[in-house]
Design brief:
The complex is a heterotetramer, with two copies of chain A and two copies of chain B. By secondary structure, chain A is an alpha+beta fold. Chain A has helices spanning 13-20, 50-66, 96-113, 133-140; strands spanning 2-7, 25-32, 39-46, 70-76, 78-80, 85-93, 116-122, 125-128. Chain A has a single domain (2-140), classed as Molybdopterin biosynthesis MoaE subunit (Aldehyde Oxidoreductase, domain 3), CATH 3.90.1170.40. Chain A has four helices and eight strands, in the order βαββαβββαββα. Classes of the chains: A alpha+beta, B alpha+beta.
């Protein structure tokens, strides 16, 4: 079961986790908007249609590679404040190794393979976040 | 051909999408970007540094030397920063 | 912040996850009672006092090693049915790598370092579950 | 010295805990297990296969050759199977 959502709505982790409980092991990752460096607001832009398709391909690839019973990706877009959830990734498998690895794979690859762009407002000035070199390396370790 | 722009590319061009008909000499994404950079001053600020750009042809990520032959939709944007 | 619970009460993952959200990255693992092989009920026995102390040491070790902002271990004991949550492990850190690795560490080490014993009832007959060789290997990879 | 038994060790002995005073020749967990195996028929079924047993002294996991000198509480049990 693959479930992909891209939405301006707040991410409800409890419901997402409950829907994943189809086998013995469930792993999840939640990313929250960081408030360090004085970031006041974060805005997420995406490529409607292409973003959802990229996330679905990613979830399908993880499901096949680790024989998952379920994989969920929820990504928020639009404006959000520090502490709010920006992304949720969840996996379910019969055994913990598969669930945990697939979860790490999904969040690593999502950062490089799905069209999202972050704009931060710091001290009243907006700036587009630059891609991090480490993200490419983290994604590449799964190849 | 429909062009889509995202993030600071969109902001610099000033619009999120436009219809264009490049000349037949423009066959790759890189050539399209060079051709766009000459279209207006705003386009020049958006497309003047091709090394900072990424692209998708018909919603699939492609390298900059990919062909645009037959493409209906080409998106041009900075490296992605989701998650 | 370290939070360790050993209880016969159902595990409330939503509340546990919400309490972990103190920094940019939250990872979790939930183990559910498996219903394959005809298991009808599972009973968990523990060593009161020593089990809680072992889990607290484990959470403290992970917190120090990965500079966690929060670590939670909840383990259910007593009788439970297939599909019910038996264990929850959650971690929070500024970055995803630390949260995900520490979460995998906690569940791997918990299986070998904390005194719990499982008894399954299959087709009306109770049997004590044997330790799995793979668990020792999974725990050893963190040394 | 208080002894605690868990899982099938507890079931085989028939009780979860007991107070014992081993002779002074019993100085390690392994020697304690051997001494217990001779205590009764039920104890023999619980402690007859030392390779299948693990132990904690005063709530800390220890190898079977660990000393029990001064121990107040010794727990004997099968390999753990939590999580």
């Amino acid at each position: 079961m693959i479930r992909v959502t891209v939405s301006t709505a707040a991410i409800e982790v409890a419901a997402e986790l409950a829907a994943l409980e189809r086998d013995g092991a469930v792993a999840s990752f939640t990313g929250l908007v960081r408030g360090d460096d004085g970031v006041a607001t974060l805005e997420l832009e995406h490529y409607p249609g292409a973003t959802e398709a990229a996330l679905e391909r990613l979830a399908a690839a993880a499901s096949a590679r680790w024989s998952l019973s379920a994989a969920t990706i929820v990504h928020r877009v639009g404006a959000m404040a520090p502490g709010e959830r920006i992304v949720f990734v969840g996996t379910c498998a019969p055994h913990r190794g598969a669930a945990l690895e697939a979860c790490a794979y999904l969040i690593d690859r999502l950062k490089t393979d799905a069209p999202f762009w972050k704009r931060e407002t710091v001290n009243g000035a907006a700036r587009w976040v630059e891609a991090r070199h480490g993200d490419g390396e983290a994604a590449a370790r799964w190849e | 051909m429909r062009l889509l722009y995202f993030a600071w590319v969109r902001e610099r061009v000033g619009i999120g999408e436009e219809e264009v008909t490049p000349p037949s000499s423009v066959t790759t994404v890189a050539e399209l970007v060079a051709w766009l950079a000459a279209a207006s001053e705003r386009h020049a600020t958006a497309f003047g540094e091709p090394a900072r750009l990424r692209a998708a042809v018909d919603q699939a990520f492609v390298p900059m030397d990919a062909s645009i032959a037959g493409a209906r939709e080409v998106a041009i944007f900075p490296p992605v920063t989701g998650g």
